[in-house]
Specification:
CATH superfamily: dinb family like domain
Largest sheet: 2 strands, antiparallel
Number of helices: 5
Helix content: 40-55%
CATH class: Mainly Alpha
Low-confidence stretches: none
Oligomer: single chain
Strand content: under 5%
Mean pLDDT: 90
Distance between the termini: 36 Å
Number of domains: 1
């Protein structure tokens, strides 16, 4: 893909972006932990997917997305695990372990992001063209969106979710 050439000041440092994202991931993990095992894969409201499927989507996008940013080889969106409709996970703990594995993948890949990559335009997952920071911000936005659905589910189940500010 092409490089974007702009003389703009950096709004946020790479390390600050990573810290911000990982803070959101820590909070999402707390929401996963708060979810009852017996409802995690099945509970739904208004036709929304069960929270476990949303968690798999968030983790899959982060894992495969970081690989794409670093290597330039993108898994096509149709090949991502959450699009198959069949999870390989059968317990909440298995999905939490995967969540933690993805956190490690992010931490491992982050310092490998090539210099200048944040100025590039890519075609993420073979479908979504945009500058790398915008693509990554979408992953954070998507996580916040699905975490909000998890909050609604927890409240409907009579469970007080973690504070939205508790990202540490």
């Amino acid at each position: 893909m092409k490089n974007v050439t702009a003389n703009e000041e950096t709004v946020i440092q790479s390390s600050a972006f990573l810290d911000h994202w990982q803070g959101h991931r820590k909070l999402t993990r707390k929401v996963i932990e708060a979810f009852p095992e017996d409802q995690f894969f099945t509970f739904s409201i208004g036709g929304m997917r069960p929270f476990a499927e949303m968690v798999l989507e968030m983790a899959s996008m982060a894992s495969h997305g970081m690989n794409g940013v670093v290597t330039g080889h993108w898994t096509h969106v149709k090949e991502l695990g959450h699009h198959s409709g069949k999870s390989t996970f059968s317990t909440k703990q298995e999905l939490l372990d995967y969540w933690d594995e993805v956190t490690g993948i992010i931490e491992n890949y982050w310092p490998q992001i090539p210099e200048g990559k944040f100025g590039e335009v890519v075609k993420a997952f073979g479908e979504y063209e945009g500058e790398v920071p915008g693509i990554m911000l979408y992953w954070v936005d998507n996580e916040i969106h699905h975490r909000g659905q998890g909050y609604v589910y927890l409240r409907a189940l009579g469970i007080e979710p973690p504070g939205f500010w508790d990202r540490y």
